[in-house]
Amino acid sequence: MAAAETDREVPSALCSEFLDFSPRDTASKWSHASDFHRTVYQHLACYVPKIYCLGPNLNPQNEELLAQLLLLAPLEWYLCDEDPSAGLAKLEQSNQPSQLCGHVFKVGEPTYSCRECAADPTCVLCMQCFLGSVHKEHRYRMTTSGGGGFCDCGDTEAWKKGPYCQKHEPNISDTSQEDPLAHLSSDMIARTRSIFSIVLKYSVDMLTWEKEDELPSGLEPLERGDTYYCMLFNDEVHTYEQVIYTLQKAVNCTQKEAVSFATTVDRDGRKSVRYGDFQFCEQAKSVIVRNTSRQTKPLRVQVMHSSVVAHQCFALKALGWLSHVIGYSDALRRILCQVGLEKTLEGENSSLVDTLMLCDSKMWKGARNVYHQLLMSSLLMDLKYKKLFAIQFAKNYRRLQTDFMEDDHERVVSVTSLSVQLFTVPTVARMLIMEENLMTTIIRTFVDHLRHRDQRGRFQFERYTAQQAFKFRRVQSLIGDLKYVLISRPTEWSDKLREKFLEGFSAFLELLKCMQGMDPVVRQVGQHIEMEPEWEAAFTLQMKLTHIISMMQEWCASDEKVLVEAYKFSLAALTHCHGGFTDGEQPITLSMSGHSVDTIRYCVSQEKVSIHLPVSRLLAGLHVLLSKTEVAYRFPEQLPLSELSPPMLIEHPLRCLVLCAQVHAGMWRRNGFSLVNQIYYYHNVKCRVEMFDKDLIMLQAGASMMDPNHFLMIVLSRFELYHIFSSADYRKRYNRENANKDIIQQNNTLIEEMLHLIMMVVGERFAPGIGMVQSCDEIKREIIHQLCIRPMAHSELVKALPENENKETGMERVIDSVASFKKPGVTGRGLYELRPECAKQFNLYFHHYSRADQSKAEEAQRKLKRQNGEDSALPPPVLPPLCPLFASLVNLLQCDVLLAMLGTVLQWAVEPSGGHWSESMLQRVLHLIGMALLEEQQQLENSIEENDVGFNFTLKISRPGEAPSNTPSILALLETLQNAPHLEVHKDMIRWILKTVAAIKTMRERTTTAPETDAVGQSQEETVRDKDKAERKRKAEMARLRREKIMAQMSEMQRHFINENKELFQQSLEELEASTSASLEHSPTSPDTASVCVGPRRSRPSEKRLVVTCILCQEEQEVREDGRAMVLAAFVQRSTVMSKNRRRPSPNPERYDPLFMHPDLSFGTHTGSCGHIMHSHCWQRYFEAVQAKEQRRQQRLRVHTSYDVENGEFLCPLCECLSNTVIPLLPLTRGSKSSDHPGLGQWLGVIGQQVKALHSAHKKLKPVDAGAVDEADRTDESPPPDGFKPNYVPKDPYSSSIKEMLTTFGTATYKIGLKVHPNEQDPRVPIMCWTSCAYTIQSIERLLVDEEKPLFGSLPCRQDDCLQSLIRFSSACWTTSSLPSVQNHFIRLLAALVPDPQGESHPSILDVDMFHLLVSLVLSYSSVHCQDSSGLNVDSAQQHFLQVVTLAHVVQVLLTSIPAETTMDQETGAGSSEEEAAVCLLYGLLRRHLVSDLYEVTSGWHLWRCVKAGVLPYLRSAALFFHHLNGVPAPPELHAQGPGHWEHLCAYLGLPSNLLQLYSSYQDLMGPLCQGWCSHPGVRECLHGSGPLVSFPRESNRLIDLPDDYSALINQASSFTCPKSGGDKSRAPTLCLVCGTMLCSQSYCCQAELDGEDVGACTAHTFTCGSGVGIFLRVRESQVLFLAGKTKGCFYAPPYLDDYGETDQGLRRGNPLHLCRERYRKIQKLWRQHGITEEIGHAQEANQTLVGIDWQHL
Ligand SMILES: [Zn+2]
Ligand SMILES: [Zn+2]
Ligand SMILES: [Zn+2]
Ligand SMILES: [Zn+2]
Ligand SMILES: [Zn+2]
Ligand SMILES: [Zn+2]
Ligand SMILES: [Zn+2]
Questions:
Q1: What is the whole-number distance in angstroms between the Cα of residue 324 and the centre of ligand 6?
Q2: What is the pTM assigned to this prediction?
Q3: What gap in Å lies between CA 549 and CA 617, rounded to an integer?
Q4: Cα-to-centroid distance, 1742 and ligand 7 (Å)
Q5: Which helix (H) or strand (E) holds 28?
Q6: Does residue 4 register a pLDDT over 80?
Q7: Rounded distance, CA 494 to CA 1461, Å?
Q8: Distance in Å, CA 1399 to ligand 3 centroid
Q9: What is the predicted pLDDT for the residue at 731?
Q10: Which of 171, 461, 708, 1609 gives 895 a disulfide partner, CB atoms 3.0 to 4.6 angstroms apart?
Q11: Distance (Å, rounded) from C-alpha 183 to C-alpha 1541?
């Protein structure tokens, strides 16, 4: 077997044969062959198996080369009849490039569509074309392509405007109709034709070949070896994991190989997983089949002969070649089209293209993709052949769809997905409708695939199996096709089009008939339903069809003849559905207020009712359209209305609306959630247009054709309320009999719902055709009512408005007329606010309000009115007039039955009893009365002839009820109610009604009586108005007084509260004081002498007790060395925020020596704190409790928390800020007073002696090797200097609890900073503390510079407190370590500064960050000083350290940061100052030591400038350090930004402002030091080294620059390929915002191992780039991702906003996005502040679902 695998590398014997091969000779042999076809096949049969598939490991490069030479070159020679390079170039010259761009989209590539100009949303442009088009100035939409599909640039049918970009603009001289073949010789045409037809035939034969062991005739191989492939195919059933697992078992490969196999299978559709003899492959096959067949159908595996596979490989190659060759010439493309569509002898649909299509579902993915691409670059690019292809496609449509149903591939790789390319072309679509009856075909195919029906032929989706559900999903793509066909409406109709459209329309009605009445429900009484019935399928169908139904109506509307016919068809369909609509129900007669009507006995609450009535609703839609036609205005008698039976029309929609009302009333509770969901969707914006809205229209249509009294009685009867209103006595009986509260409540709700329905029937007039309005009025009204609830963002409004098939709401056209836009700030989003003048159009009973919307809107509007000083009545708005067909609807308002109902409710309100009455009922009655009054007023105002107004509501409500009941008139009842104390809320409304009644009466009188009364009336009116005004003013004044009173009360309450909680307030005040203690010290103690923070002249801080309060026990505590420890919650983290070298490999934590920080600051340890103070013992108790809780929780359920207790994390008990340790608070250490200040030279000597003494002392501690005592040591043994006692053990000043906390924090810093296990004995513990202290100071210094804030006084308290505690801690931490080890650190640190030729090796000054050195030196010196009793002062030591380190830094700056002289910024005029001379002197010295390595610079001015700039950050950091260490207040000048900063800074540090004096004043001491520094071999190495040289000042790191336009990023991501799986597109390209690396996230291919765990690319990257913390942009999602560690993460709003000030996370809306710099800066600031981890913690606390995400896999 092994032999079989290795044997067949490319046989070298063949190579010579290959070398002798001449394509030219072969081609000429072909042209002389008698049987051309056979000769070419022979050639292929001979060579293909010799080139392709020769072993288990394919060698694509070799194959490619040989295939080009042996197979393709002869084809090209034959085609051109000369050298192909010349021939093809000639062809290219005469090429007429297609006007179509035709760029095929890659997955994830950005596509653009124009909302204004695209014919439909499927018309898209590639980025190139878009940028060159007019649309980039329009309202465009941007999306990412799912792959497949191509750019529509140049397609005149795709764009209403600007179809060409600059590049594809056709030449005007072009006659595009010209036959492209005209330029070609007939010889050439013939050759091309024959070669194309053979190659295409060969490819089609091979790709559709199904035999595993044989080849088509003519291709049989000359020799046949026993060589097979075991080929694994892709399916959609098995998961990645299953395939990987099975492969490992079956072919015995590693997991990595299995992953790679699985990835290829998924991408290409198949992959050979084993190569060898038949037996060997067969065996693998059986294992795979056995392993995958348990639950599902097995994975498809075939054992194929290698020659078959070889030919299939070449077939794909050949198709690619065709694609390539036709790219040279439109003529060749045309010939290929002809060849492809040529019918063969086998008859219809037998062309090669037909064969391919019909075999589509049998091919593997890779083959399909290749031939689909060829179709796109050939047939779809040739406008003439596109039509012919479309016809073939339509002819095969039914079969292709049927195949697709059984195909287990996604639709994108099915040939059926090409429908979008064909059907969306309007002319093609119309042609297909007419010629191929496409509409009918699609609809019938669809109906045929939904087979489950009930006895009456309706769809039945109950008991749906998974497989049926799968099929149902597939079949929905047909609806998509239908949508494409309908998407552009015809502007002209031919008789043929009418005929075929109507044929399609009736087919569609057949479909709707199957839906009419499906999924009926019956009210459940007694028991709750046992199983929720399936309802989603039916609603999915409805939702999918919604746009189709709307489009059908729009098509009908565009032609009157079609409309009338369609109306008749629909009516017939409805009659068919409900022909005997009584369904055997009993006829009954209803009578009320002297009217009677015949109807049937039917109760929604007892019988079957369905929410699905698409036939009725389609008819309703057409009815409205008819109403808009001219016929309706002029000759309504010509409309087919006489056949209508209004009671039949309204019956089912009414039942549906009653069902909703009853559900609201709680009568259907036992039917479970499925019904609630259905009702929800019925009203939802996605469905309502073709459901609820149309039901309402149907009621309006019915009511307009009926006697209003009859209509209302039927409504009452269906609502099951007839008995309540029909007789006056009933209520009394009902009162007595029905004590059941539930029923009373139900009936109340039903009455409210019914009144609302009546309002809607009369008042909803904003659909064009019902009222006299434009379609934009309808949208305006929707928007107004949304904004009446509250101001909304653009996307919220879009969501609340129905979208058309183009996903447009039409909102842009009208929004500015009703709303004003308010821009967003750094957070939040832009909002639209209603224009005040639009508020009067507010209708409380707007039909699209949910109950919740309604009450929110009511509250908002009442509040608004009160603010404006108006009364709070919300009367109905004035309505537009109705269209003639609906005109009679107004009579509902004044009909007897309604008046009786209104009277009854008012009567109940007057005598409230029981609970048979509700305020909302009354509110609705008042609203209805208001509507009627406004109607009357309108009619009066508009009537031309006096007294012509038949609508006389005022008269009717003034009449009392007739005998015998003798009820009072409605008006009288209202007057009574006006003063009813229990109706305070409605008073304003009643007053408004009475006023309106009066006004109407005046109007009527005016029109009837003489004109002179007019004046009286007017003046009367005026006085009324004046009174009104005065009244309003008075109310406003009262409101103001009331407000003031409330404010006074509130502040009184506050005072009271403060008194009561005095303690608390005092505490917080003290806390404030404690934390601002530093800032209080700002005022310099004596203004005359400038304060100095370091050295012998340093100012002494005033003695001050520090008293703080524990946040846990609220006890006060003074901070003392010997007191109980107080601690700050703190968070220590590794950081690379300031790194200047992200490529430095992270050090081995076990052996790393952190004593010297490299100037590139590549890894640091940052400490932050929220500033909250606790007792150490209180904290310990708290933390133990957290631990215990965590243990309990883990036992119960395995959920994550936002913090990792095992790693010491906890949340601050007060502010929930993430913390992982605590810092102890320490008092200021007081330096000993001493006047002994040795000079630098003397001091250096003393230190040197001390170090020597320590050396020998340390040696003595070590076990001495007897006999081998170093000679040098003995001579070196000099007596220690005076007063220095190396054996003295100093007394530890700290209490045990403070000592414990010193250890706790030190160990935590060590553990986190080095990523090691805690070990408090490790000598590196104090080093890590000093380093963290220095690093934190430096990062804060940078932050202040970046934020342009002064050095002192601008930090938030928490940072100030944290810094102070951190520095004081660091100065004390040595006390917990072993003294010799700390002293040893000091000795090594000092050696780097004061080189000791005999000492150990130390780094050069270019490898040391000077600030870190300074901090470590100063802090470690304490360990030496404590043994010194000579009276030497710490202050002088600090001063000398500062001076020498500063000079070293100056030298460092001079060595690294001096660029070659530039003349441009040289100030030539200025005479050289003292500084300049001094710096030149020093630079000269350095150049003497390092001749060839430094530029020659003569300008002192230039050097001095560089030094100043380079040293400044160091000086600022040093100032912060000594300020907190020694507690000296900073001078006021350093509390402000500005000039003079330098001098004050130097003065505060006790340094000369001419820093060079440090050198020039001590030349004899400093000279040798400088020489020592320069002579270190490391300096030269560094200056010449390969590594990046750090120069000073170090710039602050920024996040990478992002492009302004988001699509640039999408484009960048779309061309990004996975770095590991060779050229594959990455699914989730993710950009690191810190370093700009693009990563392949969330994918198997790029997982990496980290600490023995597989993690995703992002997590792996965070550990190299951000030491565990990462900031990423997920490009496809437009989402920022924060990661910390392996388990923490959150999503964050991206810095990209659309024009409406909103982000688009998930890129769902597709509005153009632009960079918002403020928001990006905010993210950058968060990063620089080391706040990412904290932000994640807060996000996870706020949103628990974030905790469960496996962040490490991203
Ligand atoms: Zn394009
Ligand atoms: Zn273009
Ligand atoms: Zn446009
Ligand atoms: Zn406490
Ligand atoms: Zn806190
Ligand atoms: Zn990858
Ligand atoms: Zn990075």
A1: 29
A2: 0.79
A3: 9
A4: 27
A5: helix 23-32
A6: no
A7: 83
A8: 77
A9: 57
A10: 708
A11: 81
